[in-house]
Structures are given as C-alpha cells and as structure tokens.
Amino acid sequence: MSDPEIEACLSGIARAREDLEQALQELKSGGSLPSLDWRVWFERHPLGCTAAALAIGFLLSQPSRKEGRPTLLDDLGRAGIEAALPALLKFLV
C-alpha cells in the first residue's frame, strides 16, 4: 500500500470512531440505553423483582419430572455451581 492509501484508511477509521462516539453519546443522553445493573431494576420495580426472585426460587426447588430424582438445584450443584459461584458473586457485587 502506498502512503495515500494508508492515509485514506486512517482517515476512514478516524471518521468511523467519531461516528461511533457521537452515536454512543446520543444513546447516553437520550436515556434509551437500558441499565443492566440489578440494583437499578430493583429500585424501579421492587415488587416485580421480588416476585421474579420468588418464582425462580420456587422453580429451582421443584423436583425433576422423573420420580425419585433430586431437585434442579441439586443437579446444578453436581454440575459445578461451586465453581461458578465466585464469578456469580463478582457479577452481582
């Protein structure tokens, strides 16, 4: 590639970065970028989050469909939830 081609590529990259930065600023200022923080969701919808937590806990405590099988939570424990717990706690905190 010659110098004019390199300069054209670099200027194209710079324009794309500026466009992306401007689009991100518009999203942030417009409030259309949803929050993924669970604390914000709980603050806005405390009853809905509590109901969802209860429903998930209920589903996890139910035994499997086959008779004599342990609960789904027991199955998760055998699958290595102990290994995933530190990552889950780091995500939540």
List the uncertain runs: none
Judging from the principal axes of the Cα atoms, what is the shape?
A: elongated
Ends distance:
49 Å
Order of helices and strands: HHHHH
Helix content: over 70%
pLDDT averaged over residues: 76
Largest sheet: none
Rg over CA atoms, rounded to whole Å, is: 24 Å
Share of residues in strands? under 5%
Total strands = 0
Quickly count the helices: 5
- Which class best fits the helix and strand makeup? mainly alpha
Could you list some keywords that capture this structure?
mainly alpha; 75% helix; elongated
SSE order and pairing:
Layout: H1 3-30, H2 38-44, H3 46-61, H4 72-78, H5 81-92
Helix pairs in contact: 2-3
What does this structure look like?
The structure is a single chain. The model has no long low-confidence stretch (mean pLDDT 76). By secondary structure, the chain is mostly helical. It is built from five helices and no strands. Helix 2 packs across helix 3.
